[in-house]
Amino acid sequence: MALGSKLVQNLGMGERMKGIFFSSMIIFLITCLFIFFSIQRSMLSFYSSQRAIENRVEAMIKFYESVVYDSRKSMEITAQRATCSAINYVVTTGSPLQSSNETIAELILQGTINSEPQGLMEASTVKDWEDSIEYLGTLQGFRTSVDIRDLLIEPEDSYHLSISYTIFVELYDDNIKTNLTKNSREKIIMSIENMEDPLYPLNTLGRIVNIIRPSPHWLNYSSEDTSNLKDDLENSYYHPSLYGASFLDRLEGKFFVQEKYFKPNPIGLESFVNKDKILSAGLPIDAYATNIDYLYFSKSGVDAYSISGMPSNFRLDNETSLEGKTHLQIYNVTVIE
Prior knowledge:
Layout: H1 2-93, H2 100-110, E1 112-113, E2 116-117, H3 126-139, E3 143-157, E4 160-173, E5 178-191, H4 199-203, H5 227-235, E6 238-241, H6 247-251, E7 268-271, H7 275-280, H8 293-297, E8 304-306, E9 315-317, E10 320-322, E11 325-326, H9 327-330
Antiparallel strand pairs: 1-2, 3-4, 4-5, 6-7, 8-9, 10-11
C-alpha cells in the first residue's frame, strides 16, 4: 500500500512538472511574440518617421529648385520694367544717367533712381518678389529667407543685356528640425528690341522718338538697288556697331562705346538719322554730315559722301565699322564724285 501510494505520488509530481514546463513554454512564446510585434511596430514607426523626414527634405529641395527657377523668370520681367523706367527717366527729365548699369540695378532691387521711387517699379522690385516667396514658403511649412544680391548688368551683344545675380535661399522646418541653405549664381539674357533709344530725345530736345528695331536688311545691300538702304533710312532701323554707343552708353548720353562696357564682340548700335523727320520736328539739320547716328549727334566732323540712288541729304562716312570694313563697304554703296 505504501509503495503504491508513493508511486501515485511520483506520477502526480511528473504531471505537475510537465504542466509547469508547458506553461513556461507558452509564456516564453507569448513573450517572444510580444517582443517581436513590439520591435516590428517600433521599426514600422521608425521607418514611417524616416520616410516622413525624407519626404519633407525632398519637398524642401523641390521648393528651393522652384525658387531659383522662378527667380530667373521674375528677374527678366523686373529687369524689363527697370530698363523701361530708366528710359522714361532720361526722356522725361532730359538728363542722362550717371551710370546706367548701376541705375538699372538700383531700380531692380529697390525701385528707385538716386533713392527717388519710380512709379513703373511700384510693387515690382526684387524685394517684392522675395517677400512673396517667403510667404509661399510659410504656406509650405518652411521658415524661408531669400536674398538676391551682387547684381551685375552688362551688354551681352548689340541687342541684349546680360543680368547676373547671386540668390541665397535658407529653408527651415521646425517639425523635423532640418534646414537647407544654398546659393547659386544665375544669369538671364534680356532683349532691348522695341525699347526707345534715349540718344534721340537727348539730342533732339525730346522731339524725336526712335524705337530699337534691328534692320531686316542687315548685310543685304546693293549699289545697284538701294531700296533696302532707303528702308533702313526711312525707319531708322538699327545695325550692330563696334564703336557706336551701346544701349547702356546711350542711357548715359554717350556717343561711343565706353571702356567700362567694351567687349571684343560688337555691343554697339548705329542707325541712320532721318534728317527729314528732324526738319519736320522744327529742328535744324546738318545736310552734309554723315547719317550714322552716333557720328551725326556727336558732331564728329568726319568726311561724308553723297550716295548714288539715295536722297540728296543722305551722307555716309568712310569710318571703320565692323570686321575692319568701313561704312561705305558695309552698306555696299557707290559714292557720287
